[in-house]
Write a structure and sequence with these properties.
Radius of gyration: 26 Å
Distance between the termini: 98 Å
CATH superfamily of one domain: SoxY domain
Order of helices and strands: HEEEEEE
Structural class: alpha+beta
Oligomer: single chain
Helix content: 10-25%
CATH class of one domain: Mainly Beta
Number of helices: 1
Length: about 130
């Protein structure tokens, strides 16, 4: 009985070591995408924000990649591992920028938000429209 238990225990340990080795052998796909500024200020919600963003990205192996604004391609690079550039953009709502390879897999992404100086959403009237007097 103890022989069966010890052999089962040894088999379980061996299988767990093999599984950990296979998990550790998988390549780690690290990509970095940094866009500055991350926030654009407008006077009121709905206005178009025009600004120049600084884009800095890096990946582990050289690839053909493109920077996308939602589903629109902004700029592409061939066989690059990293790049820095400035791009002029116009946005009217929060936008997600993504770095994608030629198979359209998203390697990294970052959100650029729009903040309004005067937000209609949170303003309330201080006096009513009508009065008895």
């Amino acid at each position: 009985m103890s022989f069966k238990r010890s052999s089962i225990l040894a088999l379980c340990l061996l299988l767990s070591k093999t599984a950990n080795a296979e998990i550790n052998a998988l390549p780690v796909k690290k990509a970095k995408l940094e866009i500055k500024p991350m926030v654009c200020m407008v006077k009121s919600i709905g206005q178009i924000c025009e600004m120049t963003i600084s884009v800095d990205w890096s990946i582990q192996t050289p690839q053909n990649v493109c920077l996308f604004k939602n589903e629109t391609s902004l700029q592409c690079w061939k066989n690059k591992q990293k790049a820095k550039t400035n791009i002029s953009i116009s946005i009217s709502e929060d936008m997600i920028f993504s770095l994608r390879n030629e198979k359209m897999h998203v390697l990294a992404n970052q959100k650029v938000k729009i903040n309004a100086a005067v937000s209609r959403k949170y303003r309330r009237k201080l006096k009513s429209d009508w009065s008895f007097f």
